[in-house]
Automatic annotation (TrEMBL):
Pfam families in UniProt: DNA_pol_A (PF00476)
Protein name: DNA-directed DNA polymerase family A palm domain-containing protein
GO biological process terms held by the UniProt record: DNA-templated DNA replication; double-strand break repair
Region (Disordered): 172-204
Tree of life domain: Eukaryota
Entries under PANTHER family matching the protein: DNA POLYMERASE I (PTHR10133), WHITE SEEDLING2 (PTHR10133:SF61)
Compositional bias segments (type: Basic residues): 187-204
Domain (DNA-directed DNA polymerase family A palm) ranges: 3-198
Molecular functions (GO terms): DNA binding; DNA-directed DNA polymerase activity
Amino acid sequence: MLDAFKAGGDCHSRTAMIMYQHIREAVEEERVILEWHPQPGQEKPPVPLLKDAFGAERRKAKMLNFSIAYGKTAHGLARDWKVSVKEAKDTLKLWYSDRKEVLAWQMKQKELAQEKCEVYTLLGRSRRFPNMAYATSGQRGHIERAAINAPVQGSAADVSMCAMLEIDRNTRLKAETNSRPMTNSRPRVRQAGSRRKAHNHKPT
């Protein structure tokens, strides 16, 4: 998965290619391409892009990419896609077959939740699950999904926080920001609202 991100391009199209045999065949036969980087003088790709030729499948792949980050199960995906649980399970197996490291990481998060009743973000902030020891099977499933999602969402917040602190320490950026006039659209919004009220007002 890291190789795919380093290579850049359309992650969701790559997932669609993994999920669907007919898309893999189309890519292998060069009837479609994953990405296209136009060169000077080129206006359109030599063959259709995967995202254009197989838009519905790519949307499903995109949903799957984000759903797995949220720890969604085959049952949840089956409801979202309106397919059988077996079909959803088969699709998940295809996804994980190309990203075994993701499955290993998710299993580790579940083990942390079970053994330590907490998981951690990149900066070490914890999400605790004090009820794990005596949770029912349904509650345990909810906790395990949260144990997968919390480090993802929490680590994204860590990165954003670090970026904001770094920007605050950067004197050049602060000087540029302070020199720019701040615009305030709120008065215009109030005026627009007042005009709508006046327009809709009917004399009695």
